[in-house]
Design a protein that fits this description.
heterodimer, A: 198 residues, mainly alpha, Four Helix Bundle (Hemerythrin (Met), subunit A), 7 helices, 0% strand, B: 95 residues, 72% helix
Chain lengths: 198, 95
């Protein structure tokens, strides 16, 4: 048996996994849609508590990081290993910025007594409670995916440095990139749904 | 695996143009959110989001250059989502 690696098959497998992730977040968006329909004014009120510029900054950070990840693959395949490594490092740095922003955002909410099971939310309007419940679940799950994506990119970075990923064999980097772009896609929808619905 | 069937490669320049469009759309969607268009704010924000998502999918994720298996299975997933979200919302909206 020859030692052939089916790069196309590996890619198809990754896309299948991405579909499951899309449907996972899709289900959460269904919840959002149903409750938004029921409590539109409270969802708008909840949206006002969120900082649009913070959200926009995070959107820009992820979009740029998607670009640098895609560019890192181009770099590798053009034989520019150094550029690939630099671009991946920058992408990881973008992930760190995103998570730090998330820390500040959530921290600001906690300080205003707007967290799951807080007094303000449990004794207040159910619509506002549901808005923030969905906010923490969806942005939290998204944040976990950012961390997973960063781990995948970090592993890819190490393998690029050691040569295990190279111009002839780059499925790991390709697939890690796809996962990272998915994280970006989800945020592109999360941003208007939570920050711009006012 | 011969070099003939190496997948299509996007240049830095092409990727940068896509990024520029994405950043412009982000500015537009934030700017529009400060303008009160009543009912239209949400569908407009979602429409811009769909455009951005399409750009990331087609170019950063290479979907434009993939074969039928990936393209069709992706469209199938979208159809699934449309049914899941659309029909649920359709039910909820008319209760």
């Amino acid at each position: 048996m020859t030692d052939r690696i089916d790069q196309d098959g590996i890619k198809i497998g990754m896309w299948l996994f991405l579909y499951s992730e899309i449907i996972l977040f899709g289900g959460l968006f269904v919840l959002y849609a149903a409750y938004f329909h029921r409590y539109p004014e409270f969802f708008a009120a909840g949206g006002l508590e969120l900082d649009r510029l913070f959200g926009a900054a995070n959107t820009v950070v992820l979009l740029v990081s998607s670009f640098t990840v895609a560019a890192s693959i181009t770099a590798l395949r053009l034989g520019k290993k150094g550029q690939c490594i630099g671009l991946l490092l920058f992408s990881l740095f973008c992930g760190v910025i995103f998570l730090v922003n998330k820390y500040f955002e959530w921290g600001a909410k906690f300080a205003r007594d707007l967290f799951p099971n807080s007094e303000t939310l449990t004794s207040g309007e159910p619509g506002l409670n549901i808005f923030f419940g969905l906010y923490y679940i969806i942005t939290g799950l998204h944040g976990i995916h950012v961390i997973i994506g960063m781990i995948l990119l970090a592993v890819s970075l190490v393998w690029v440095m050691t040569g295990r990923i190279n111009a002839n064999r780059f499925s790991m980097l390709d697939n890690s990139g796809l996962y990272w772009h998915l994280v970006d896609l989800i945020w592109i929808f999360v941003f208007p749904l939570f920050y711009l619905v006012l | 695996m011969t070099h003939q069937d190496q997948p299509h490669l996007l240049s830095y320049w092409q990727l940068a143009v896509v990024l520029a469009i994405l950043l412009v759309l982000t500015i537009v969607t934030v700017g529009v959110s400060y303008v009160d268009l009543g009912f239209f704010n949400v569908p407009l924000a979602l429409a811009i989001a769909c455009t951005k998502v399409s750009l990331v999918l087609l170019f950063f994720m290479h979907l434009k250059y993939e074969g039928p298996i990936i393209t069709l299975s992706f469209i199938g997933t979208v159809v699934f989502l449309v049914i899941m979200i659309g029909f649920t919302f359709w039910d909820v909206a008319f209760r």
